Amino acid sequence: MEGLKFSEANLTVIIEPSKSGAVTHAIKQQLSSSLFKYNETFDGVLLAYDFVIRSNLANILSLYPFVGVSLKSTLLLFDPKPHTYLEGKVVKLAHDAIHVVVLGFSAAIITEENIRDEFRFKIKHGREIFRSTSHKRHVIKLGTTIRFVVKSFDEETLHISGSLEQPTTGDIHWLSKNSGELLSAGRSSRKRLNVDATKEELSSGTVDAGALSSDTHVSKKLKTHRLHKGL
Predict the structure, then answer these.
(1) How many helices and strands in the chain, by DSSP H and E?
(2) Most buried residue among 15, 198, 218, 224 by CB atoms closer than 10 A?
(3) pTM of the full structure
(4) How many Å apart are CA 84 and CA 128, to the nearest integer?
(5) How does DSSP assign 8-39, residue by residue?
(6) pLDDT digits (tens, 9 = 90+) for 29-84
């Protein structure tokens, strides 16, 4: 699953003098208070951490009676970007939406307009399901683990908007059994995702000059080739 990354960071944790006798415990308390929250400094949601105290010496802050302890830490972060793939467990189904929980804490919703046409909502034996009209065994029901594409991520609420428009999305168990059939579809869908991402970067002005000059160079070569062909 995409959206997860490890990060190495040098941190300084501030602890109270009263906790200087149990420094390790105090550090864990401080870091644990940041778990499952988006942190701009870390550029992601902190899921887990490990650390080593860099020195037995700590700095006493001049203005306040606190101690600064330097750490070398390894952080596991959750930072889903648009057009990447995530996996989550279906917790609710309705005719107009699929509700999913990712990693046990982040809520995701896939609305009707982001579910590809082959999936049809049905109620079978009193249970809601989405069944594929192209592959009868491809069924999404309560408890199914699905793969979907990220459309957006709200850093404050940790809420994800997702999509099942790509053919490489859906029930992960069905997808794994039919990976060969979907391989070519996955390549083309990934290309479409990359094109969409590039379009968004161009519209927002985030593509660097090197990328633009590279695209321009390719375009010129194509035009030159066409001219020679015409001659």
Answers:
(1) 4, 14
(2) 15
(3) 0.71
(4) 27
(5) EEEEEEEE-GGGGGGHHHHHHHHHHTTTTSEE
(6) 999 999 999 999 889 999 999 999 887 766 666 666 788 888 999 999 999 999 99
